[in-house]
Structures are given as C-alpha cells and as structure tokens.
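Form 12-C: Joint structure prediction
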Amino acid sequence: MSDKHIASGNRASLDFREKLVAEIPSLRAFAASLSGSMQQADDLVQDTLLKAWGHADSFTAGTNIRAWLFTILRNTYYSLYRKRGREVQDTDGIYSNKVAVSGGQESAIDLADFRIALAKLPEEQREVLIMVGATGLSYEETAVICGVAVGTIKSRVNRARIKLAELLGINSAEDIGPDRTSLAVYQPGGHKALMTS
Amino acid sequence: MTTTPEDDDAMPPVSNSTGQNSGAPPGEINAKVQDAIGRALKAHYDDLVGAPVPDRFLVLLAELEAKEKRDDGETS
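Section 2 - Result
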C-alpha cells in the first residue's frame, strides 16, 4: 500500500470513524429535535453516517466535523423525511414518553411543557434555536449550515424565543418563579391566599 | 433555500396582555425570560445527548470500515 493511498481519503484514517462515533449523541439529539421522533431520528442518523462515510473526502480536516455532519443530516431531513406541516406532527417518544425524565431542575420552565412548546415552533425557527442555543455551533456556522445570512439566523432565533415565551406564557420576569429550582412556571395569584389563612 | 422577506424585517410586536410587564419593549425579550428559555433549551438537548447510543450505529461503522479494508486488500 502506497503512502499516496493512505493519504487518499479521510476514511482511511481510523480517526475519522472515531470522530463520527463521538458525534452520534449530538446527531441524535439534533435529529430528534427536528423530527420530534426518536425512531425517525435514528433512521436519519443512520443515513447521515452512511453519507458521511461515502463522502468522507469532502470533509476538510481541521474544520468543524459537527457542522459538516449537521449539514448532511439537515439536508437529508428536508429532502427525505420532512412531513407536510411545519410543526412536529407526531411525537413518538421524546416529547411524550420521556416527560418524566428530569432535567427541569435547573430550569424555571418544566421540561415537558418546554418540549411541547418547542414542537409547536415552525421548523426553520426550531432548528436554529437548537443549533445556536444548545449544540455549541456559532451563528456563523449555523448560517452556513442553513444556507442563509447570519442576520437571518439572528432574526429567526429572536422570533423563536418570543414565540416560545408566548407559548409558555412567560412574557415577563414576573411570570417565572423567583426560585431557580422551581419546576413549574409560576402562576400569578395562584394559592397565595391559602398561606395566610 | 430562499430568504423570505420577513426574515429580515423588524420583529413582530409581542402581545403584552397585562400591559404592566416590566419587561423588554415589544419585539425584544426580557433577559430573565431569555435566560430561562436558554436553560430549558440546554436541559432538553442535554437530556437527548445523554441517551444511550444504540449498538446499530457502532455496528454499522465497524462494518463500513471492515468492508473498506477488504476492498483495499483486493486492490493493492
């Protein structure tokens, strides 16, 4: 085997496989956030891994492999998986079955409530909110992945936050419980009177 | 993908039902609300990232690599 052959593709290095393996949890989380379905997410991830392997030569070593993989996954989703509507239509797992799973302790918003609201966002808003707000991708990387201007990404993120706040009924700081550990959204005027009676 | 005009337009006004929210002006979002959404977003995502990875993916990549090694063996 010649040196040229060894250097001929990213696939040739074991390193590439390890990089793919390391990104699987992020790919699944992004795919599930996009599709609302864990089963569909896993099919999407499988397609993404196959395409990534087949097109390993198009990955530029030293660049962000997550951004590259997200681009493949997103294109696959929009060309093959996307349903007619812009909202998550059917949630088979992540938004319904696993709602009891905590995660809400660090947030003033209940995780189950949040997921229901997130699923109601238009997908162009949901995807950028996830990418910018949770995956560690920059606005610039997100803009490249989505094929739009950075300003458009910022605009979508902002509208997504406003829409979420609206859906969750938290338009002002008063609507959020003062306690960071509170699980539920504070209900103004709830049962305060009972405490003094 | 085309950019729709609305993308770069000003934000739509936020409905302010009580009219007494100490929050941000219309089109912007209160910093505390934004912070809470940010943490919920992380909680949602980190919960999914933390889920165990099915074996099928590791098996798939191992198979792809094995096949490539076989092919390399045949051609060299």
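Section 3 - Comments
Chain A touches chain B through 61 residues (CB under 8 Å). Chain A is about 60% helix and 0% strand.
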